[in-house]
Amino acid sequence: MKTPLLLAAPAFALGALALGAGPAVAEDGTYQASLSPANNSGTSGQAMIDVRGSQATVSINVSGAAEIWKNAPFPHGQHIHIGGQGVCPGPQADADGDGVVSSPEGEPYAGRIAVSLTLEGDTSPASAVAADRFPGGGAYTYTRTITLDAATLEAIRTGNATVEVHGVDPNKLPPAVQQKASPEDPSLPLAATLPAACGTLAASQVSGPMPGAPDTGIEGVGKADDGATALAVAAGIGAVALAAGAVAVRRRTAGGK
Ligand SMILES: [Cu+2]
After folding, report:
1. Which residue has the higher pLDDT, 2 or 182?
2. How many Å lie between the centroid of ligand 1 and the Cα of residue 147?
3. How far is the CA of 88 from the centre of ligand 1 (A)?
4. What are the extents of the domains in the chain?
5. Domain boundaries 29-203, corresponding CATH code
6. C-alpha of residue 80 to centroid of ligand 1, in Å
7. How many angstroms separate the alpha carbon of residue 74 from the centre of ligand 1?
8. pLDDT digit string (tens) for 158-186?
9. Taking a C-beta distance cutoff of 8 angstroms, is the pair 220, 214 a contact?
10. Where does residue 42 fall: left (phi above 0), alpha (psi -120 to 50 degrees), or beta otherwise?
11. What is the pTM of this model?
């Protein structure tokens, strides 16, 4: 019987159309991370990312951070990391056993740098250690609206993105570590780029739609047993009118005989 196949086609087309429009809405929302101290830094804070399409307003509050470096506010690199396990590294990530977990050591857990949360200019991984464009000092508030790429948006939406703030007071580190150079930039001490606080971004309960919310409209059409109903919903009121007209014509034709 061919009729069900013909009727199914418009319903499928509507499903595809609705799915195509869906993800942009589903990605919108507010995501939060509670930033917990790493590497004995005493640094903690909160990060919030409000996603609207590909635009994201990032807000970060940090306290207990390293205050001074070379007679100036201690610069704190901060990034969105993706592509790891979406978790902050624990002590087991200390591969070389020096007593601290460097950014490269933590990468399998927190992920690689996807976004550099700079104050101005470039936000790509190329600005990961752009010390002169990061906020600094023992406590600060940061807000900036930036554009995120698809991979970062997906990671945030699926709980695979972390926020890390870097830069630890050398006095809080083991003596041997204080003498080490940064693996990311050998001209800097390791202390300058060590993770100081970290948190996993998760959908906020405060506001915004939950990610992956089911689209009941699509489900309803897809599960419809009545092919005629699916066709009418898919094609809209115009098709209903046409179908009604066709029925009327058929009846007139039949009656005319
Ligand atoms: Cu980072």
Report:
1. 182
2. 18
3. 11
4. 3-24+213-256, 29-203
5. 2.60.40
6. 7
7. 16
8. 999 999 999 999 999 999 999 999 999 99
9. no
10. left
11. 0.71
